[in-house]
Design goal:
The chain is built from two helices and no strands. The chain is mostly helical. The protein has a domain of 32 residues. The termini are far apart.
């Protein structure tokens, strides 16, 4: 069995780490909100389906 001190330490750690983790995840979702929908619309708008323009080369030459 665990001692009372160890249980208190674990409880305090959980009370500190869970809100930090939830806040971090919430900020990530908030930062990415709407980005996927914009990407999906750009794919449907032209013949360059899935091609990334990473250089001046035509998209047909891109090997990713």
């Amino acid at each position: 069995m665990n001692s009372t001190g160890a249980q208190r330490y674990a409880g305090v750690a959980i009370l500190i780490l869970v809100p930090i983790t939830v806040t971090y995840l919430w900020l990530g979702v908030r930062a990415m909100n709407g980005k996927v929908l914009c990407y999906e619309r750009s794919i449907e708008s032209g013949p360059h389906i899935g091609a990334r323009h990473t250089s001046g080369n035509p998209p047909e030459l891109h090997m990713s």
